[in-house]
Amino acid sequence: MKLNRIFFVVFLALCACTNPKESTYNGSPVIKATSDWTAYKIDTDWYRGQWSIAPQVAHDTLQVVCHKNKESFEFITDMDTIAFDVSANTTKDFYVQLNDSTYAHTIIQGVPLESNQLNFDTLRNSEIQIKYQTEKSAFLEELKQTYALDFIDKKMTDTEIVLAVLNWTNSRWKHNGNNSPSKNDAITILNEAKAGKQFPCFAFAIVLKDQLNTLGFNARTVYLKTQDAADRKGPPGHVATEVFINDLQKWVFIDGQFNVMPTLNNIPLNAVEFQDAINNDYDNFTLESLAAEKSTKRNYVNFVYDYLYYFDTSLDHRYEKDQRHTIAEKQSIMLVPLGAKNLTHIDFWNMNVDYCVYTNSINDFYAKPN
User: Fold this and answer.
1) Domain-by-domain residue ranges, the chain?
2) Using 50, 70 and 90 to split pLDDT, how confident is the model at 340?
3) CATH assignment of 138-365?
4) Could you tell me where the beta strands, DSSP code E, fall in the chain?
5) How many whole angstroms separate alpha carbon 271 and alpha carbon 55?
6) Per-residue confidence band for 8, with pLDDT thresholds at 50, 70 and 90
7) Looking at the predicted structure, is the pLDDT value of residue 56 above 80?
8) Separation between Cα atoms, residue 108 and residue 123, nearest integer Å
9) Are strands 45-48 and 39-42 parallel, antiparallel or unpaired?
10) What is the pLDDT of residue 3?
11) pLDDT > 70? residue 22
């Protein structure tokens, strides 16, 4: 355990034992500080050093996204603490008295998750086929020999195997969104990571997909895009993996960058089911992981939720095929919610999305592998 973490735990214990004399200013509670350092907790998640005491800012407001009816909130300074519940569309306020002189008005504003209830068709278009590996692959054999997954035990269930490969993949390098591998295949990415390079989300997704395929699974890279992907000023996409778990006869979403597999009632979820669980079953879904330090539900949802709107993947996930499977000369399929426009251009990357066939049918996108 790092020294600063030990100090933080001791400090919290001291705060919990302190019962400072209550005071008010302008009718609101007052806590004291001698520096602008703060930490705050939402539910069970601590955020240290992400908010500074700023007396020069009138009515300094910290927004708290409320996933539940009530979220517990705690705020600490270097010498004091205050705690209360926060609900969506409500505010609580207090003052921080800095060095027994200046008062900083601090407002905690509860805001609801801006949820999108997505709806899809269920009609199956028999003309839409997605191809997966069925023959022996020289590339997969090379990957299997070069980066053997020796930790796999025959007694493990499919879900346990997937979680183990997910954890292994996540441990190969630290995420870096500014670098790209020289080639987009698992052997190249793992070789370059072994040499010290670090890569973005799509590299985790590719390695995870390729390694699962060496084990006989059907796995695919899935590209997630926001509702406003056409004109969003910031990056509008994230990349993850889906794998068909034979034990369950269903597609399952896994995120190599964050080392998580969402489940509900012990059943792993695909990307669309995960989006629905965030909207309608937040308290009950879990994030399964073998990581020593796990991503929390709140932090992961706050990151990924926006991206769970448009979903696309290749129409052909086979290796060593000179002629790729396409439909109407399109190489990918995009699942589009009912009522949404087809995504045809992304300003941020100055990119035309001219490579997709579009469908509103969840059964087209999640058809059982051939």
Assistant:
1) 3-112, 138-365
2) very high
3) 3.10.620
4) 24-25, 28-33, 39-42, 45-48, 60-66, 71-76, 81-86, 91-98, 102-112, 218-225, 237-245, 250-254, 261-264, 267-268, 285-288, 310-314, 332-335, 345-346, 351-352, 356-359
5) 44
6) low
7) yes
8) 46
9) antiparallel
10) 42
11) no
